[in-house]
Automatic annotation (TrEMBL):
<feature type="signal peptide">
    <location>
        <begin position="1"/>
        <end position="33"/>
    </location>
</feature>
<feature type="domain" description="SLH">
    <location>
        <begin position="267"/>
        <end position="330"/>
    </location>
</feature>
<feature type="domain" description="SLH">
    <location>
        <begin position="199"/>
        <end position="262"/>
    </location>
</feature>
<dbReference type="InterPro" id="IPR022222">
    <property type="entry name" value="DUF3747"/>
</dbReference>
<dbReference type="InterPro" id="IPR001119">
    <property type="entry name" value="SLH_dom"/>
</dbReference>
<protein>
    <submittedName>
        <fullName>Putative S-layer protein</fullName>
    </submittedName>
</protein>
<dbReference type="Pfam" id="PF00395">
    <property type="entry name" value="SLH"/>
</dbReference>
<feature type="domain" description="SLH">
    <location>
        <begin position="337"/>
        <end position="401"/>
    </location>
</feature>
<dbReference type="Pfam" id="PF12565">
    <property type="entry name" value="DUF3747"/>
</dbReference>
<keyword id="KW-0732">Signal</keyword>
<dbReference type="InterPro" id="IPR051465">
    <property type="entry name" value="Cell_Envelope_Struct_Comp"/>
</dbReference>
Length: 401
């Protein structure tokens, strides 16, 4: 093989390799064009300024609904984050992004991850999250902590015009978070700093990020459910059948024109497995006599058994009917909204009542208020039981005309 031929072959090889590289590059362009963003529940995601020696590091954490709590919040200006995700294997409960591989800046619906970097800087008496332009090093404030506290994880509140979104590819959400900005809204906010966030106080240390936080607080204020001595509510702990009876009677008793107070002591043994001396016996007896609860086919009540979400609906429906008939009205409940279609109740014994209670002030709702699954056979957590009972209470207290 002569030298001239060798040079020609090498030249062609280079051309071929270049064509392959360019072809690969161009083949990626359509894929890039298919990336987008997806809205996410802002209350279930937070940006955290994590102390790390001389600097703060940015971490983004998202709570997976219905799973173990990822963080707790306390205080304001600044709000301190307790990083619960560091105390257990958070896989399946929390989504976390701790570097630029997991989050980036997006402006006006366009991926600008190559144009901006994100940095946490101390500015006066607070920590600011800034988007730094790679072109001219200019800085735009994305969020603030509204204060500092030495050695503590701090919540970063996003400025007006900014929100969390998820990166998508071909319509499928990825694990990558966007700090998504709307330049018009950012410009409208101007240089005036946003007002310090108003942090809703919580009576409990474990409900700050719970979906049902506000309804739990209202239920506690009404007095038909309470927390524990250690200042926790244990929102996801299953509610027992006897606890439900006590809670429902308490809720009905707060409606001014209803007489729903159980006697102090049981006069009989209401069920074979509920002795007359049991703490809940009088309430169970009263609820049974007023057709609010029923036992099982074998005659038992199973007071300590966790109540299922379907059983919860049955008791709340009976309680609402009790309120109607006590007022001299028909037992038929007046619906207030459209019926919700759940994907997992077809053929279930509680199908019709679950659908009805979804239209009755939204008492029946999707698991953790997301998706289309009701999970009728799953135990009801204290959080949902409190919220559903509160909705029934409110519907009874303000009946439709």
């Amino acid at each position: 093989m002569n030298r001239k031929y060798m040079k020609l072959r090498n030249k062609l090889s280079i051309v071929a390799i270049t064509s392959i590289i360019l072809g690969s590059t161009f083949s990626l362009l359509p894929a890039k064009a298919q990336t987008g963003e997806q809205q996410i529940d802002q209350s279930q995601v937070t940006a955290v300024a994590v102390p790390g020696g001389r600097f703060y590091n940015l971490v983004v954490v998202e709570q997976i609904p219905g799973q173990q709590q990822c963080w707790q919040e306390s205080g304001s200006q600044p709000t301190v984050i307790e990083p619960l995700w560091t105390t257990f294997d958070f896989t399946g409960s929390c989504r976390r992004a701790a570097d630029s591989n997991g989050y980036s800046v997006r402006l006006d619906g366009q991926d600008t991850s190559l144009d901006y970097s994100l940095d946490l800087v101390e500015q006066g008496d607070e920590v600011q999250l800034v988007a730094v332009s790679r072109a001219d090093n200019s800085r735009t404030v994305v969020g603030k902590t509204f204060g500092k506290q030495e050695g503590q994880f701090l919540k970063v509140y996003l400025n007006p015009g900014w929100e969390f979104t998820k990166k998508t590819f071909e319509g499928k959400a990825l694990g990558h978070f966007h700090f998504s900005g709307d330049t018009a809204a950012i410009a409208a906010a101007g240089d005036n700093p946003p007002a310090p966030p108003v942090v809703a106080t919580s009576s409990f240390s474990d409900t700050a990020t719970d979906t049902y936080k506000e309804e739990i607080e209202e239920a506690v204020t009404l007095g038909f459910i309470a927390g524990f001595e250690d200042d926790t509510f244990k929102p996801e702990e299953p509610l027992t059948r006897e606890q439900l009876v006590s809670m429902v009677i308490g809720a009905l008793d707060t409606v001014p024109d209803l007489q729903a107070q159980a006697p102090d002591a049981a006069t009989i043994q209401p069920y074979p497995d509920v002795t007359s001396s049991r703490w809940s016996a009088a309430k169970i007896q009263w609820a049974k006599e007023n057709q609010i609860v029923k036992g099982y086919p074998d005659g038992s009540f199973r007071p300590e058994q966790p109540v299922t979400r379907a059983e919860l609906m049955a008791v709340l429906e009976n309680a609402a009917k009790f309120a109607s008939t006590t007022r001299g009205q028909t037992a038929e409940l007046v619906t207030t909204k459209e019926t919700t279609s759940f994907a997992d109740i077809s053929g279930h014994w509680g199908e019709q009542l679950i659908q009805q209670m979804s239209a009755y002030c939204g008492v029946a709702s999707a698991y953790n208020e997301t998706g289309d699954s009701f999970l009728p056979n799953d135990p009801s957590g204290r959080n949902y039981a409190a919220a559903a009972t509160l909705r029934m209470h409110n519907c009874v207290a303000e009946p439709s005309s």
